[in-house]
From TrEMBL:
Record protein name field: Adaptor protein ClpS core domain-containing protein
Xref: InterPro entries: ClpS (IPR022935), ClpS_core (IPR003769), Ribosomal_bL12_C/ClpS-like (IPR014719)
Adaptor protein ClpS core domain residues: 39-106
SUPFAM superfamilies the record matches: ClpS-like
Top-level taxon of the source organism: Eukaryota
Single biological process term from Gene Ontology: proteolysis
Amino acid sequence: MVVSAAALGKGAGVLDRPVIERTTPGRESEFDLRKKKKTTPPFRVILHNDNHNKREYVVQVLMKVIPGMTLDNAVNIMQEAHYNGLSVVIICSQADAEEHCMQLRGNGLLSSIEPESGGC
């Protein structure tokens, strides 16, 4: 039995051959990298209160270091750390959390990271 494309209706036809991505040994494919990124547990970046930095400076550093940080969010995070001793700055991948933490520390702020599922 032969079925023409016209008989099947709109959208029927021959499919293109799928492209199979070849990787060299020791190199991860784009799919593997996406899968790994999705399966890594999220981490919290925590800002700790200190008595050395002015509040305005803390807000400026948060806006400089954390992508997409707004003035309102930075002020709220700074206030929470000031009154409660610590505040969650952002929840992200471990690699990003480590980078943000190092940048905050590099600007003189006290910060740490912890898995989102543990800690406070």
